[in-house]
Amino acid sequence: MIKGMRTVCYPVQDMDAAKAWFTEVFRTAPYFDQPFYIGFEIGGFELGLHPGEPGMAGCVAYWGVDDIEAEVERITTLGASIHSAIQDVGEGIKVVELKDPFGNTLGLIYNPTFDLKKVR
């Protein structure tokens, strides 16, 4: 039985620079830090960094936020660029795609109907 999303991994060429950047973006230090993998606990899920070539691999993970405009402004000042503008996709839900400094797509979502209690 599939229980749901647990981990999102991003390939990066510079593990130290990526660790510093993601620590600042997500405002938390990694709980696991080895040359082959760096793991962050983000709201009950895992963000992983591993050595590799960045680039779009066919899907985008969207990280939940309370204020999408403020987070886009904050994260772009940290070095990300806007890949696609903030879009209202209905029901008050807004999404945006950013490019991190390492070439990966970082999605953000504001979803007022998301119920964290349903996450298992």
From TrEMBL:
Residues 4-111 form the VOC domain. It comes from the Bacteria. Pfam families: Glyoxalase. InterPro entries: Glyas_Bleomycin-R_OHBP_Dase, Glyas_Fos-R_dOase_dom, VOC_core. This is VOC family protein. It comes from Massilia atriviolacea. The lineage of its organism: Bacteria, Pseudomonadati, Pseudomonadota, Betaproteobacteria, Burkholderiales.
